[in-house]
Write a structure and sequence with these properties.
- The complex is a heterodimer.
- By secondary structure, chain A is of the alpha/beta class.
- Chain A has two domains: 232 residues, Rossmann fold (3-Layer(aba) Sandwich); 108 residues, Rossmann fold, CATH 3.40.50.
- Chain A is built from eleven helices and 15 strands.
- In chain A, α9 links the parallel β11 and β12.
- The longest helix of chain A is centred in the middle third of the chain and has 19 residues.
- By secondary structure, chain B is of the alpha/beta class.
- Chain B is globular, with a radius of gyration of 17 Å.
- Classes of the chains: A alpha/beta, B alpha/beta.
C-alpha cells in the first residue's frame, strides 16, 4: 500500500482504524457527536465485505456486537454518553462472557440528556465498570486524530488477547476535529482464529458462551479468574506519555483533548522558565500508576479535566498522599483554557 | 435382531433437566433436538438461550449455544447470523423475554426479515421469578402481581405478539401451536421443523408460538394445566397458522 496521509475527523479515523484492524462487524445507533463514525462504517463496511447494522436502539446494538463477537467476529459499536449508558447492560454481559468487543464513547455533557458539547464526565462510568458486577474494561484515551486511528487498532488486539471489552474514550472535540493522519501501510489485519467461538460443533464438543454460574461457589471461582486477568493487564499494559518529569515542580495530569490544551499551557510556561511537567495517561483503565512514584515530596500535581473531577481520584490513589494534588475542571461542556491553567499554576508556584 | 425405533436425539444431552413436573420446556427442548437431528444440522446449529426458566437450555442441547441478556436474544442472534450466514441460528424465548422486556428487539429483528428461527414459549406467566404477571397473562388469571386476577383497567390486555408481528413484511412464517395433547405436540413439531426449514431455504423470519403448561405457577396439577390450555388459554390465543 502506498504511503498515504489524509485529512480526516477523529470519528472517521476511529472507523478507518477499525477497518484497518480487520473489524468485520459494526452495529450502531445515531447520536451526536459520533455520527460521522456510524456513517463512515455504513459506507466502508460494505466495501470491505463486513457487516453493518443500524440497530433499533443502543441496547440492540451492543447485543448484536455481543452476538457477532461470540461468533468470532472483530466486533465494534459506538455511541456518545447517553447511548453508552444504555449499553452498560451489554458491556457487563460481554465482560462476564469474556468476549472481545470494541466500544467507542465520544463523550458529551451530562447528566441526563445534557448537551452535545465535548466533555470528559464519563470517566467514572468507563473506568469503574459502569454496568453491574465485579468487572473492568480496558479504556484507551487518544489525544489526537492520529492517535485515535492507532489506538483503535491496538484496541482490537487487546480485546482479542484478553477476551475483554475495550473502550475508546474520546470527546466531542476529538470526534469532530480534522487532522492529518498517516495511514498504515500494512495489510488489513486478519481476524485471529478463535477456538472458543460459536461456529457449529463440527468435529468438536459444543461451545457455550455465557456469564451465568449458578453452582455454589462457581461464580466466585470465575470472578477470581477474571481478577487474575485484570491483574495481568495492570502489570503489562498501562501506557502513558510524560513531559519534563526530571525537573518539574508542578506536574499537570490530563488526558485526551484536555492534555492537548495542557501541553499548550506547559509550552508557554516553559518558555517563561517555569518548571512544569505533564503526565498524560493513555490507558485510563488500568490507570498508569508508575509515573506518580517520584521520590520528591516538593512536587505538586495539578489535575485538569473537562469534568467536575473524576480522574483526580485515580491520581490521588496513585500519589497515595505523598504529594499535594490539586484540581481544576469545568463541567457541562465548559473547557478549561490555557489561561485558566496558567493562572492556577501561578497561584500554586 | 431387534430394531431400535426410539431413542434420545443426538442433539439432546443425557442429562436430567431442572424443570418442574408437567412443565412444557422439556417437550419443547426435545422437539427442537429431534428436528435438528432430522434435518442433519446439529453441527451447524447455534442456539440462543433466554433469561427465564430455560436459561440453562445450553446444558441440555448438544450443539453450540449462547446466552443472551433478558429480552436481547434476537439482537444476539442477529449478530451471530450476520457473521455466520451458513449456520442455522435460532432463539428460544419465553413470553416475558420476547413480548415484554425484549419487545423492541423482537419487532425489529422480525421487521428486518432476519433469516432466523424463534421458538416462543407462551405459558402466560413469569416462571423463573416465581409466578408474576406476564404480558400474555389472561384476563382474570391470578398471579403474584395480579392477586385479584388480571384486570384490564389496571393491567391492560394479554399481548398477542404473534398477531402483532404477522403484518410485518420481513416476517415469513408464524404459527401458534399447543402442548395440550399428544396430537398437538406432533403438530408443534411439524411447525418447528417448518420454521427451521424456512431458514435453511433463506426465506426470512419464522416464529413458532407454543402454548405451554406451567402447572406450578398456574397452581394446577399437570393434567389440569393441559386442560386449562385446551379449554381456556387457546380461546385467547387461537391455534393455527397466523402467517
Amino acid at each position: 500500500m502506498p504511503n498515504k496521509r489524509i485529512l480526516i475527523s477523529g470519528n472517521e479515523a476511529i472507523a478507518q482504524g477499525a477497518l484497518q484492524a480487520g473489524c468485520n462487524f459494526y452495529a450502531g445507533y445515531p447520536i451526536t457527536p459520533q455520527n460521522e463514525l456510524i456513517a463512515y462504517m455504513a459506507r466502508h463496511m460494505v466495501e470491505s465485505g463486513g457487516v453493518f447494522i443500524q440497530a433499533e436502539s443502543e441496547l440492540a446494538a451492543i447485543n448484536m456486537a455481543y452476538g457477532a463477537a461470540s461468533a468470532g467476529a472483530r466486533s465494534m459499536t459506538s455511541s456518545s454518553s447517553p447511548g453508552i449508558s444504555l449499553k452498560q447492560e451489554g458491556i457487563s454481559y460481554i465482560a462476564g462472557a469474556q468476549l472481545p468487543v470494541v466500544i467507542v464513547n465520544i463523550m458529551r455533557g451530562g447528566p441526563g440528556l445534557g448537551n452535545i458539547a465535548p466533555a470528559q464526565s464519563d470517566y467514572f462510568q468507563a473506568t469503574r465498570g459502569g454496568g453491574h458486577g465485579d468487572y473492568h474494561q480496558i479504556v484507551l484515551a487518544p489525544e489526537s486524530v492520529q492517535e485515535a486511528y492507532d489506538l483503535t487498532q491496538i484496541a482490537f488486539d487487546l480485546a482479542d488477547k484478553y477476551r475483554i471489552p475495550v473502550m475508546i474514550l474520546g470527546d466531542g472535540i476529538l470526534g469532530q476535529m480534522m487532522e492529518p493522519v498517516q495511514l498504515s501501510t500494512e495489510q488489513i489485519k486478519k481476524n485471529p482464529q478463535k477456538v472458543w467461538a460459536l461456529a457449529g460443533c463440527k468435529g468438536r464438543k459444543p461451545n457455550i458462551i455465557k456469564s451465568f454460574f449458578m453452582r455454589e461457589g462457581e461464580l466466585e471461582e470465575f470472578n477470581i479468574i477474571l481478577q487474575r486477568k485484570y491483574d495481568a493487564i495492570r502489570k503489562k499494559e498501562p501506557r502513558y506519555e510524560d513531559w519534563f518529569l526530571s525537573d518539574a515542580k508542578i506536574i499537570l495530569v490530563a488526558y485526551g483533548t484536555m492534555a492537548r490544551i495542557a501541553k499548550g499551557a506547559i509550552s508557554r510556561l516553559r518558555g517563561a522558565g517555569k518548571r512544569i511537567g505533564l503526565i498524560r495517561p493513555i490507558f485510563l483503565w488500568p490507570f498508569p500508576r508508575a509515573p506518580f512514584n517520584l521520590n520528591n515530596k516538593k512536587i505538586k500535581y495539578l489535575v485538569v479535566e473537562m469534568s467536575a473531577g473524576q480522574m483526580v481520584e485515580d491520581v490521588r490513589l496513585a500519589v497515595s498522599g505523598r504529594n499535594p494534588v490539586e484540581f481544576i475542571g469545568r463541567s457541562g461542556g465548559g473547557i478549561p483554557s490555557e489561561e485558566e491553567i496558567i493562572n492556577k499554576i501561578k497561584r500554586m508556584l | 435382531m431387534m430394531e431400535k425405533i426410539f431413542s434420545r436425539p443426538e442433539s439432546l444431552r443425557d442429562t436430567a433437566t431442572h424443570y418442574c413436573s408437567g412443565c412444557g420446556h422439556g417437550i419443547a427442548h426435545r422437539l427442537i433436538a429431534e428436528v435438528v437431528d432430522e434435518l442433519g444440522i446439529r453441527e451447524k446449529t447455534i442456539g440462543v438461550a433466554p433469561v427465564g426458566c430455560a436459561v440453562v437450555a445450553y446444558d441440555y442441547w448438544n450443539f453450540d449455544c449462547s446466552e443472551a441478556a433478558h429480552g436481547r436474544a434476537l439482537a444476539v442472534a442477529t449478530g451471530i447470523k450476520r457473521v455466520r450466514p451458513d449456520n442455522i441460528v435460532f432463539t428460544y424465548q419465553g413470553d416475558g423475554d420476547l413480548a415484554a422486556i425484549g419487545t423492541a428487539e423482537t419487532i425489529h429483528a422480525a421487521n428486518r426479515g432476519e433469516n432466523l428461527t424463534t421458538i416462543f414459549i407462551n405459558n402466560a406467566i413469569y416462571g423463573m421469578t416465581g409466578g408474576q404477571m406476564a404480558p400474555t397473562t389472561l384476563l382474570g388469571q391470578k398471579t403474584s402481581t395480579s392477586i385479584e386476577g388480571r384486570v384490564k383497567e389496571k393491567h391492560g390486555y394479554p399481548l398477542k405478539i404473534s398477531e402483532l408481528l404477522a403484518p410485518l413484511s420481513g416476517v415469513y412464517y408464524i404459527e401458534r401451536v399447543s402442548f395440550h395433547s399428544p396430537g398437538e405436540v406432533l403438530k408443534a413439531k411439524h411447525a418447528i421443523k417448518q420454521a427451521f426449514e424456512n431458514q435453511m431455504n433463506n426465506l426470512g423470519f419464522s416464529l413458532v408460538e407454543i402454548l405451554s403448561p406451567c402447572p406450578t405457577y398456574w397452581e394446577k396439577n399437570p393434567r389440569e394445566a393441559l386442560d386449562w390450555i385446551k379449554l381456556v388459554m387457546q380461546k385467547e390465543f387461537p391455534l393455527g397458522r397466523i402467517k
